[in-house]
Amino acid sequence: MILAGDIGGTSARLAYFDQRDGRLLPVVEEVKHSRDFASLQAAVHEFKRKHSHAIASACFGVAGPVDNGRVEAPNLPWIIEAAVLERELGLSKVYLINDLEANAHGLSELLESDFAVLAPGEAGAKGNAAVISAGTGLGEAGLYWDGVTHHPFAAEGGHADFAPADDLQAELWHYLHDKFGGHVSWERVLSGPGQFNIYEFLRDTGKGKEEPWLAEEIRTGDPSAVVSKHGLSGKSPLCEQAVDLFVEIYGAAAGNLALKFLATGGVYIGGGIGPKILPKLKDGRFIQAFCDKGRLRPLLEKIPVRVVLNDKTALLGAGHVAMLHTVRAVRRIG
What we know:
It is a single chain. The protein is built from 13 helices and 13 strands. It is α/β, with parallel strands linked by helices. The strands form 3 sheets. The protein has a 6-stranded mixed sheet with strand order 8-13-12-9-10-11, sandwiched between helices. Strands 3-2-1-4-7 form a 5-stranded mixed sheet, with helices on both faces. A hairpin with a 2-residue loop joins strand 2 (11-20) and strand 3 (23-33).
């Protein structure tokens, strides 16, 4: 039995998987609110008390940079250490990987129905690939192509400098630079909180009007969800403008990542926000910004771009990594 986890700033997904013929078979899964627990160990212990199974291997995909089996989660007050989890679980080895690396591994467990196509790209496209995921934060990962298979690796490009593409985005950069007192990362714009940062910028600089009913919904609800909801419905022109700007910036960031990794094998849009605003991603703004790279536009136009619809991709990826290590261990013993 495999224990896998997808640990984010908002939710912690934990699951047991069995394995058969190189495929993961789900046994039981729970989604927990991360901040309800003082640590990952506490969340895992509660899960194990409710669902008792003997574990052969465990892997957790965590939102944050993994350094020598240790993660200081940037969007959670947790320090996660593989050595501590090994003692707690009684395992010789627990694997910690970045959550976007887990997403990249999880792609191999998905079906065609788990994707929405934004750009088909060139038929039979091969080469490196990339994943960019806006959710509670902004994650990025790459998949190196060795000519036969892909090898996922982690990146932390979400914390790189936000690069404005036009005058309006330059104003946004100045607004956020003042708001945060310095460095403006892509994550300050492309994330749940980032979407609301864009909304506040447009509102505070007089580029749209916030109606009283909208202000009340934002005050009493999830601000980013409110902006997305009314941006999609068109009920609020200000929200629609915020979502449109978010989509344009998302497309530009995805195109940048495609160039940096030379991701001719495809770019995947992961995270929780993409599926929720899929109609906006499909209206042309995203792909226009993705391809708007001057002399390299023809290269970008050949790259397949797809949205990952399965919200369990990172969980499946963590299970996939644990399964690979289990299979290798069995082969060594054999």
